[in-house]
Amino acid sequence: MSAKKIVVQCAARNIIALVSTLAISSHAMAGGVHESPAIAKISAKAAVISELEVNRTLGGINPDYFAYIVKGRIEIGTNNCDASGRKVNLATKQVGEDLVVFAEIKKSHNEAGRICSMEYAPVFVTVEATVRGMRSQIDQVLILNVDRQGSHESINP
């Protein structure tokens, strides 16, 4: 085997190792992207949550129960006209053994007939919800679309 071929093979191994390390570290830094089709479908429809705060609170008298207070900012419209009449809340849904938390924007009934300017002055709303569950039934709590669409933060209860 020639020295040139050995150097090329070593360089290829180093590049593969570097690429896999970068992929793993970027996945960890982004908070992860969940691979479940059901969760991806919820994530595609949910709004983005910024400035996320999660605090543990009392789950109840039973030690199997847990509770978290989840708080975040959500953009509900590009300006006051666009945002008028919209309501936002943090909804939860159990998917398999995961409890999924996502931001849900409900549009007003007269939104289709409204004409708004193209001015960009985003309207944000701060929402808060208490998420409860049983440790024996929930593997992890996933908060979808944290800071960007498609990402999530996970909490082990």
Q: Give the number of domains.
A: 2
The number of distinct β-strands equals: 7
Distance between the termini: 55 Å
What strand line-up does the widest sheet have? 3-4-6-7
Structural class computed from helices and strand pairing: alpha+beta
| Rg over alpha carbons | 22 Å
The whole-number mean of residue pLDDT values reads 79
Q: What is the molecular shape?
A: elongated
pLDDT < 50 runs, ≥5 residues: 3-33
The largest sheet, given as strand count, sense and whether it forms a barrel, is: 4 strands, mixed
Continuous helix count: 3
Strand content: 35-45%
Give the SSE string: HHEEHEEEEE
Work out the helicity level: 25-40%
Describe the structure.
- Strand 1 (49-57) and strand 2 form a beta hairpin.
- The longest helix is centred in the N-terminal third of the chain and has 27 residues, at 3-29.
- The protein has helices at residues 3-29, 37-45, 80-83, and strands at residues 49-57, 65-77, 87-95, 98-106, 123-134, 140-144, 152-155.
- It has a 4-stranded mixed β-sheet, with helices on one face. Strands 1-2-5 form a 3-stranded antiparallel β-sheet.
- It has 2 domains: 1-30; 33-155, no CATH class.
- It has 3 helices and 7 strands.
Task: List the main descriptive attributes of the protein structure presented here.
157 residues, alpha+beta, four-stranded mixed β-sheet, three-stranded antiparallel β-sheet, 3 helices, 7 strands, 25% helix, 39% strand, elongated, disordered N terminus
